[in-house]
Write a structure and sequence with these properties.
Peroxisomal Thiolase, Chain A, domain 1; 32% helix; 333 residues
């Protein structure tokens, strides 16, 4: 059995910066209101004028990760792409990333696990590498979800939270079983699917329905915020403990925790729960908002750029989100 290790990281965020003050001009909200509830100061939104989509941003982040890995496109054996905001209803965005990168006819798999998408993607790629099927797998997560939001006072509970961007890693085969991905842990609880969801359009309620029924707003995302928060703080902790226990680690062994950037209050709760210092937890939600599947990928790339991760560090990635889905990854860098 092989292990898989991260040999390259990259991220891309749109240039368009949207501050809390900007939002207060189009809806009833304020900087204080948003920061108090989420910790967010600003976010990036994709530009239609520049043609930014989940796939184009994913390709840009991937280019950086591949270059930093010291590889070329020809060295990548497989693509795992996580997003809830693909360019098309179908086909999935993975094939678009493959095309935009000019790669040969390698396989491309789409993961629809929303906020947990990057965690799920790493787990899938890790299994392909562990079995010896592939040597180098590109795992990329991207979101262009700003176009889905109701940017009015009615939709402010969602609109102020979410941002766009992409992050990528290259996972590569290593024969050192003490390095790289030590374990991954995945969970779901579908009975709560509609507590955080975008339920339309769907095959039984297609576009014509909304043209005929102006009162149906199910094509905007919905979130039961307090319910999601309550479950998130519980599942985050469970996923982290599960990973630590499997590897005979304790919270004191964590060098860096990178949680999904859902809400700064959730991250702070988890940090306090595990008695971690500010230097042991990486947060960037303040400047990017919640970039859903891309959030951990972007944060990991930034942490590497800022030299916050050293060789042999124990890095924990953890996510919770729509589905409900949640999970964790334990890495030795």
């Amino acid at each position: 059995m092989f292990n898989s290790k991260v040999i390259g990281t990259g991220h891309y965020v749109p240039e368009k910066k949207v501050t809390n003050e900007d939002l207060s001009e189009i809806m009833e909200t304020s900087d204080d209101w948003i920061q108090e509830r989420t910790g967010i100061k600003e976010r990036r939104w994709a530009s239609k004028e520049l043609g930014e989509t989940a796939s184009t941003m994913a390709a840009k982040a991937s280019e950086i990760a591949i270059k930093k890995a010291g590889l070329t496109h020809k060295d990548i054996d497989f693509i795992v792409f996580a997003t809830l905001s693909p360019d098309y209803y179908f086909p999935g965005g993975g094939v678009q990333v493959q095309h935009l990168l000019g790669m040969h006819t390698i396989g491309a798999l789409d993961v629809r696990a929303q906020c947990s998408g990057f965690i799920y993607g790493i787990s899938v790629a890790d299994q392909f590498i562990k079995t010896g099927m592939y040597k180098n797998v590109l795992v990329v997560a991207a979101e262009a979800q700003s176009g889905l939001l109701d940017k009015s006072t009615r939709g402010r509970n969602m609109a102020v939270i979410f941002g766009d961007g992409a992050g990528a890693i290259v996972l590569s085969r290593t024969e050192d079983n003490n390095k790289g991905v030590l374990s991954t842990h995945l969970h779901s609880e579908g009975q709560y699917a509609e507590e955080l969801a975008l339920t339309s359009p769907n095959p039984s309620k297609w576009v014509k329905h909304f043209k005929d029924d102006k009162e149906d707003l199910s094509y905007f995302p919905y979130m039961n915020g307090p319910f999601v928060f309550k479950h998130a703080v519980t599942r985050f902790s469970e996923a982290i403990v599960e990973g630590l226990d499997q590897n005979n680690f304790s919270a004191e062994d964590i060098d860096l925790l990178i949680p999904h950037q859902a809400n700064l209050r959730i991250s702070q709760f988890v940090q306090k729960r595990f008695k971690l210092s500010d230097n042991q937890v990486y947060n960037n939600i303040q400047k990017y908002g919640n970039t859903t599947a891309a959030s951990i990928a972007i944060a990991l790339s930034e942490a590497v750029e800022q030299n916050k991760i050293k060789e042999n560090d124990i890095v924990v990635l953890a996510a919770f989100g729509s589905g409900f889905t949640w999970g964790s990854v334990i890495l030795r860098w």
